[in-house]
Amino acid sequence: MKITVDFDHCEVHGDCVVAAPEVFDIGDDDDVVQVLDDNPGEELRTKVETAAKMCPVAAIKLGA
Ligand code: SF4
Fold it and tell me: N or C: more exposed end of the chain, with fewer CB within 10 A?
């Protein structure tokens, strides 16, 4: 599945990192979330969908 993050809207809340740490990360000096894997396998879909739902600014979009 393809993941895109609208970095203009990301406010580094970190909810996505909690939901899917395999895919998202925030370092101490980061101004926006880091996408560790923008095309993760289907086994991570549930976690990524949860991350997208939890994002307070709806910055995470999932493709096929
Ligand atoms: S939950 Fe949304 S706003 Fe927070 S770090 Fe992730 S993408 Fe950014």
Answer: C
